[in-house]
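#help-structures

NK: newbie question. if I give both the sequence and a SMILES, will the prediction place the ligand too? trying with S-adenosylmethionine
OV: yes, paste both and it writes out the complex. here, I ran yours:
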Amino acid sequence: MTSTRTTPRPVTPVALLAASLEDVVRRLDEAEARPDGVALDPALGSEIRRAAALAAGLDPYTAALSTPESPALRALSERTAAEDWAGDGAGLEQEMLSGHLEGQLLKTLVHATRARKVLEIGMFTGYSALAMAEAVQEVAGEEGVVVACEIDERVAALAQECFEASPAGDRIDVHVGPALDTLHALADAGARFDLVFLDADKAGYVDYLRALLDTGLLARRGLLVVDNTLMQGEPWTGGTSSANGEAIAAFNQVLADDPRVEQVVLPVRDGVTLVRRTAG
Ligand SMILES: C[S@@+](CC[C@H](N)C(=O)[O-])C[C@H]1O[C@@H](n2cnc3c(N)ncnc32)[C@H](O)[C@@H]1O
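OV: that's the protein plus ligand as structure tokens.
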């Protein structure tokens, strides 16, 4: 992977909404500037502009008012943005990185649950793993651990380099390989996790959920945090649904029907579902 920085494309429902409304406002401005342009009701025009401002300002506002990321997380984010993902060939892209707001949410959840053992399924360049490692280090010191699963060797090596340059990086234990195999090996070894962050291949989410609940990898009072459960709005806008959109819609229904859990879907970034084990 060589270095070429590009601006991330919109990948969340709010960012897509903002981009869409920005385009509507631009076309409105162009139409109004034309001498023969169709005159729009001024009240409708100002309502459209207000809707565009509401959507465009939400992410920057929530980020600005949340605790800033650590220098180590910022460095990891910048390193990820500087990679040439287009030439990667493995389908990885910088937009996969969760980032400041979601990282801060994960840190808060680790603190709130006093989690000492954390499992991440889908690490990429390590942003969320490092965010949770910073929190487990504060909660449990040297007893705190984040086990992070990643299938791609090159991206795992990049993450490991960043961890080695980070104060909390040595709390992270990286397992390279298909996450389902790692989960079964961990379960066979009797591992239990207080908090699990699920963020790997969307087609595998149902299998990961079953492995976590059936084997007891998710501790009795453990918290499961699932990313991308709104999948760019595809589950409810339909029409252009991708394989990932269909996988997430199916996963959300499986989760909603599972009597062993209670869950809440939060419209943070691309959707974050918090799952609490209630039985089984
Ligand atoms: C959305 S990214 C994870 C982003 C990361 N959690 C973060 O916040 O920066 C998904 C990652 O899951 C990995 N992945 C996909 N399929 C996998 C599998 N079967 N086992 C383990 N990792 C997998 C991909 O290589 C990719 O790096």
